[in-house]
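Let us practice reading a record.
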Amino acid sequence: MAIPTKSSAFTELGFKATLEMLKEEIQDLYQADDVPWIIGYSGGKDSTAVLQLTWLAIAELPIDQRRKPIHVISTDTLVENPVVSAWVNHSHEVMRRKAEELRAPFVPHRLTPTVEDSFWVNLIGKGYPAPRPKFRWCTARLKISPSTAFISGIVKQSGEAILLLGSRKAESQARAKTMHRHEKHRVRDRLSPNANLPSALVYTPIEAWTNDDVWMFLMQVHNPWGFNNKDLLSMYQGASPDGECPLVVDSSTPSCGDSRFGCWVCTLVDKDKSMTAMIQNDQEKEWMMPLLELRNALDFRNGRDGEDEMTDRHLRDFRRMNGSLMLFNERLVHGPYTQVARETWLRKLLTAQQLIRRSGPAAVGTIELITLEELREIRRLWVVEKHEMEDNLPRIYSEVMGDPFPGPLLDDNMVLGIDEMNLLGEICGEDRLHFEMARELLSVERQQRMRARRAGLFERLEKAISRHYYDNRDDAIALAKRHAQVRGAAAIGLTSLSGNEAGLEAAQDEVF
């Protein structure tokens, strides 16, 4: 099946007649039932075209016929390109005021991931390594979950929902195949099912449009909620020639890593071409340089180990989170970032935030690269879950920001003070594993003491010992291999895998 050619969707009927036909179709679908509508709006050209076309169509209906809501949802991952994020947020404000003024049924919503699913809580708090093509943990948490939760909530209230997306067949061969496959199962004219959202039907009004068609529409038709589409064009001209970041509702939707405007931390591609182009093309956007530098530091392709390979293994623990080992072709599959690495990432992030606040324009004088809520959750994970009783987050925050950390003390989880922890570290010297074991044993006992029942204490202590009792990394690997030879791949604390890169990809999901 070939991708539609670049010939315009307006060729057969002409520009005005095609728009009138689409507006009439939108009006008919809107009035056909009481099912609420949801428009995925990313602020890019395609979603803007869908929203604008829908707004124009609904505005022509009498007010008493605009009886059901049209929810406009934008997913903010909290690590979006700041320029685009500001654009979308401002667009929501203008849109909300205009909808109230015109009594239009459009209701904008800014969706964000839960604090537990946020990028920095997973990377700095839990230690998840920066996303990569074979371990893409971010898309579901940052994009799919927020939008799915909202759509599911609407479905729960109304029984059904209709989702309007800016998907176009001309975007790619894969997108065209997916859309054609869904068309075969349409239960209503122009409405396709969605496998991940069984009670939501998908409507793609500009599916036959080309890039040129989209820009022609945006440049020749006035934006009905008052935004200047020429500014949108200028934003695209200031970046690389890719597509926009779509609303992601399933794993088949292209991630922002392959699109123009996505997360500034994205390491799913070799380079962030859009941010690089913005900085190069506009001196007023040079304040974004700390973001680009941090993104490049996160990229595993820029790290090297002793074998002169591009990797971030030197920043990651040789054990999984539960302390066990995973071998792939006799080689360790590394686990989460180490404590030192996580603390380094936090310091770099806060430093970038301070640099931007001090040297950037007034508009970013209060920019928040990481929220206080995220910082508090990271601190809890470090102290309570990872037993890092040094409680270093407040100290790092104070050193970088110049202010005390605005969070409560965690006395309930402390056994030793800072001086005592330093002394324990001095006693253990370079024996990091046994320092971590002693620290975790103290923390586990303290946590268990605070509970009404002490059931499970010995099991937790045993797990702590098994996680740290090796002499060093080489000792752990040698011991694991001996267990594997004696007991087979089912040896305690060892998963032994072999095969090609596909096997490694499957293994990555088990690292945590």
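A brief commentary: The longest strand covers residues 70-75.
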